[in-house]
Amino acid sequence: MTVDATTGMKATVAWWELAGTGHTVESMRDYLRGEAVGRFSGIEGLRLKIWIADPAAERWGAVLLWESAEAAARPLPPRAAELIGRPPVQHTVFDVEAVVEGRYADAALAGRGALWEAAHS
User: Fold this and answer.
1) pTM, rounded to two decimals
2) Could you list the pLDDT tens digit for every one of the 121 residues in the chain?
3) Is 109 exposed, middle or buried (0-12, 13-18, 19+ CB in 10 A)?
């Protein structure tokens, strides 16, 4: 069996350097709360988006899992780049070699992460 890397699942990684932009991880969380989570939950072909941050290094980013190369190639709303004032310093699309789900206690992924934990504390 031959695998065609041009049509299979894709993963995208994007990173921004926030230093000098007037934004922090906390201000970007406001963007998540106010609009990003809702906007990205309706994107066709997006299986999963994980927003990631490194507050000590002033970095903000995302990892996206796409069901196809076609879905990964569609343009996304440029709102984060507009807020930050520049494109990401890294935006890379990878072929997905395999996906597995491990064993877990809570089946729901939506509503998890520092954004929601901070809202409940």
Assistant:
1) 0.84
2) 444 556 699 999 999 999 999 999 999 999 998 889 888 988 999 999 999 999 999 999 999 999 999 999 998 888 999 999 999 999 999 999 999 988 888 777 777 788 877 665 5
3) exposed
